[in-house]
Design a protein that fits this description.
The complex is a heterodimer of chains A (about 130) and B (about 450). With about 130 residues, chain A is α+β, with helices and mostly antiparallel strands. Chain A is about 20% helix and about 30% strand. In chain A, the strands form 2 sheets. Chain A has a 4-stranded antiparallel β-sheet with strand order 2-3-5-4. Chain A has a two-stranded antiparallel ribbon with strand order 1-6. Chain A is elongated. The N terminus of chain A is likely disordered. The longest helix of chain B is centred in the C-terminal third of the chain and has 18 residues. Chains A and B meet through strand 2, strand 3, strand 4, strand 5 and helix 4 of A and helix 9, strand 14, strand 15, strand 16 and strand 18 of B.
Chain lengths: ~130, ~450
């Protein structure tokens, strides 16, 4: 089943409203991205759409969470911070099925791997989530 | 004009071999530029060129560079625009001679000097280097080159900006190289124009970052830009990027007025993170740039100012790009239509795989993708809805031997009449068997390469 984005979710039931201070939001509402390749590794540069979102990305888009998002699709994840560009750079090892000319994949060079990361959901304060999109 | 006010304009004309042919012409005609920089070489490009050269010793370079130069030579000679291009591939001399011939035909005899850079090609020296203990281990796997020595097709060291600077100093109007780094094509002119010391690491890093931003052509000026992509105007006339550099190492990224696309902080940032590794350590033959020091600011419409860049000393190694013969592959596709398109495509895949098995064909890999369902995002895309209008079945195979791949290519078409229904999209004939040429990155001591680098000035 397709995942719902925060903005399409219905308001939580009244009983839980008080406790629920964050809601899941797809990264595409907080960041843009570009990816490339180096051998069998895809890189994804994730860039905050607003500098104010960068600390949220740093805190929430962790190596563990990205590895879980891509489980079965990559063999390892590294993360680097670029506060000057409000960006994170991820190396997704083993993502390209051999990479370069060996790979049989449509996206052998990982050109659109960036968009697969933008599907990921992270918890965002409800007040902020309402302003996105 | 004082030295401080001097601005050097470097325009990108090609982001890869096969990029938009109109771009360099528009860069020359659309406004003032001092240099036209054209990057032709991706990782496996050299092996394609090597193959062409083995069939005809006069080839082995980016052939479309020559008719392109024919279009722009009269203008660049008149206006004193200089060109740096790694279009020479594995035969920079052949490329230079072809351009000289064109120049003479255009009546530019005596008015054009070509700087020819050689010495990056280490294929003829490979056995000697291995014998002397250079193992040229694969940077990714750690395996020594000896394992695949007999299958090596090309081997080139990445040269930096220094031979380009030497060629420009020698009066070259057009510098033609083999495997010079993409960034060296921009850094070279800046070092030459501003007289930067080769160990002025911050400025070397700044020129390197400038090169990285424009080396993929329009990919920093609106092309492939994800952020607000609907608002990027007139991509049909996209302006390729221009760097306006100052002696202090700061520069502005812009494009000619009246062109399409956009140059903003988002477009430059997307290009900066493209193919990035550790951002603090961007290694080139000329120095190490720290991308976490880059400051970007919008400095007007389609103008991004770049400053603050710090660098560190170069390493004593050069990267070597080796291409070797790996095997064969082929990709076959068919399109299945509603209703139950995905289910039909999956059934067809099962039929195909059973036939391949029953034929006893052995492959290193068989990969099935369902374009429209899972080709780009895998399982993350989720299951498709039941009303999917169509799906493309895309099956790829790879083997060390040619025979099983060849046989595979004959198993796609029969599915049209012998498999699940509602299938089309088989217009292109049998899939092509492709040779797989793989890439082997390695390092070598700088001292093994640099004494062999030659710069010649050839007159039209």
């Amino acid at each position: 089943m397709a995942k719902k984005t925060a903005a399409t979710r219905k308001t939580p039931k009244r009983a839980t409203t008080k406790r629920k201070t964050t809601v899941p939001v797809q990264l595409r509402h907080l960041a843009h991205a570009r990816s490339g390749d180096k051998g069998n590794t895809a890189n994804v540069g994730l860039i905050a759409l607003d500098p104010a979102y960068y600390p949220i990305l740093v805190k929430q888009v962790t190596v563990a969470r990205v590895a879980r998002h891509f489980r079965g699709m990559v063999s390892g994840v590294e993360r680097f911070e670029l506060p000057n560009l409000h960006a994170l750079n991820f190396l997704l090892h083993g993502a390209l099925d051999g990479g370069g000319t060996i790979s049989l994949k449509t996206d052998a060079q990982g050109k659109v791997y960036s968009t697969a990361l933008l599907r990921m959901e992270i918890p965002v304060p409800a007040a902020l989530a309402r302003t996105l999109r | 004009m004082t030295q401080q006010k001097k601005i050097v304009r470097i325009a990108a004309g090609q982001g890869f071999w096969g990029d938009w042919l109109e771009a360099p012409v528009r860069q020359v005609e659309g406004g003032p530029i001092d240099y036209l920089m054209m990057d032709y070489l991706a990782e496996v490009t050299m092996s394609i060129m090597q193959k062409q050269k083995s069939r005809d010793p006069k080839l082995g370079y980016a052939r479309d560079f020559v008719p392109l130069m024919e279009r722009i030579l009269p203008r660049i000679v008149d206006r004193g625009i200089r060109v740096t291009a790694n279009a020479g591939g594995v035969n920079p001399r052949g490329c230079a001679e072809a351009v000289l011939e064109v120049a003479r035909r255009l009546g530019l005899g005596g008015r054009l000097r070509i700087g020819l850079v050689t010495g990056d090609d280490i294929l003829p020296r490979l056995d000697e280097l291995l014998a002397r203990g250079h193992e040229l281990r694969d940077l990714d796997t750690g395996r020594p080159l000896a394992e695949i020595r007999d299958r090596v097709l090309s081997a080139n060291a990445y040269l930096g900006m220094q031979p380009i600077v030497a060629a420009l100093r020698g009066g070259a109007d057009v510098v033609i190289t083999g495997r010079v780094t993409d960034t060296g094509l921009t850094l070279g002119p800046l070092v030459h124009e501003f007289g930067w010391a080769p160990d002025d690491w911050d400025r070397i890093a700044a020129g390197t970052v400038a090169g990285h931003i424009i080396e993929c052509g329009a990919q920093c000026s609106g092309g492939n830009l994800l952020r607000d992509w609907r608002r990027v105007k007139d991509l049909a006339n996209v302006g390729f990027p221009i760097v306006e550099a100052s002696a202090d190492g700061t520069f502005v990224v812009t494009k000619h007025p009246g062109t399409g696309g956009v140059v903003n902080v988002a477009s430059v940032t997307e290009q900066l993170v493209y193919e990035m590794g550790d951002p603090t350590t961007y290694i080139t033959p000329d120095g190490v740039a720290d991308f976490t020091t880059i400051r970007l600011e919008q400095a007007g419409r389609d103008r991004v100012r770049v400053s603050g860049i710090r660098g560190r000393p170069r390493t004593d190694k050069l990267k070597v790009s080796i291409a070797y013969f790996y095997g064969y592959k082929a990709v076959g596709t068919l399109v299945y239509a509603w209703p139950d398109a995905y289910e039909k495509a999956r059934a067809a895949d099962r039929v195909l795989r059973q036939r391949l098995r029953d034929l006893g064909l052995e492959f290193e890999q068989i990969l099935t993708e369902f374009v429209g369902v899972d080709a780009t995002h895998g399982r993350l895309a989720g299951a498709p809805g039941p009303d999917l209008a169509e799906v493309q079945l895309r099956v790829g195979v790879r083997a060390r031997e040619k025979a099983p791949v060849e046989r595979f290519t004959r198993e796609i078409a029969p599915l049209v009449l012998t498999g699940p229904p509602s299938v089309t999209g088989f217009a292109g004939g049998r899939p092509q068997v492709e040779e797989v040429v793989a890439y082997w990155p390695a390092l070598i001591d700088r001292t093994e390469i640099e004494p062999h680098v030659r710069v010649e000035i050839l007159e039209a």
